[in-house]
Amino acid sequence: MMVAEMESRSEVVYFGILDNNGSPEGVADYEGVPHHFKPESRVFNSASPGRFRLTPLSPEVFQAALDSWKIRCRWGAAVGAGRASPLAGRALPSDDARRREAERILGEWLFVSGSLWFLALAEFRPVGPDGWHAPVVGAIQVQWKVSASAAGGV
Predict the structure, then answer these.
(1) Which residues contact 84 (CB under 8 A, 6 or more apart)?
(2) What 3 state SS string does the chain have?
(3) By the 8 A CB rule, do 32 and 95 touch?
(4) What is the reported pTM?
(5) Are 58 and 40 in contact (CB under 8 A)?
(6) pLDDT tens by residue, the chain, 154 residues
């Protein structure tokens, strides 16, 4: 039996982080709409497509996620330059109020979004030499494939 697959064009990855197993998690477009992506399994092989849970983001949640990422990047750069202590918090003092607000928005979203996800296969491609380590939007692109087999028949 042949399974129909829907393959997307290359989409922008707004940001992503790699966990200790090298599994990426972050925010990327799917069909032009921002989605949170998270690996279905903590075992990730970058040489082959991985299965990811994709959850759509509202504009408010998307903005909170982007703000949170930018705040984290500014704080990391300040720590690296010796202008901030890694023990002082997760944001510069000027960003702390927005960090707390973004975390509240994201926390509420995580609580209510549990049933909105779907599975897709993902192939990530670095666009520049820094790949996952570049703190810029578009340094990574992704191509999603959604099929009955990717979704486990759901």
Answers:
(1) 75, 78, 92
(2) CCCCEEECCCEEEEEEEECCCCCEEEEEEECCEEEEEEECCCCCCCCCCEEEEEEECCHHHHHHHHHHHHHHHHHHHHHHCCCCCCCCCCCCHHHHHHHHHHHHHHHHHHHHCCCCCEEEEEEEEECCCCHHHCCCCCCEEEEEEEECCCCCCC
(3) no
(4) 0.80
(5) no
(6) 333 455 567 998 988 877 777 778 899 999 999 999 998 876 655 555 688 999 999 999 999 999 999 999 899 999 999 999 888 788 999 999 999 999 999 999 988 888 889 999 998 888 876 666 656 666 788 999 986 554 443 3
CA distance 41 to 38: 9
Give me the residues paired with residue 142 across strands.
11, 124
Among 150, 149, 124, which Cα is nearest to 15's? 124
Phi, psi of 48 (to 5 degrees): -135, 160
| Widest Cα–Cα separation across the chain | 60
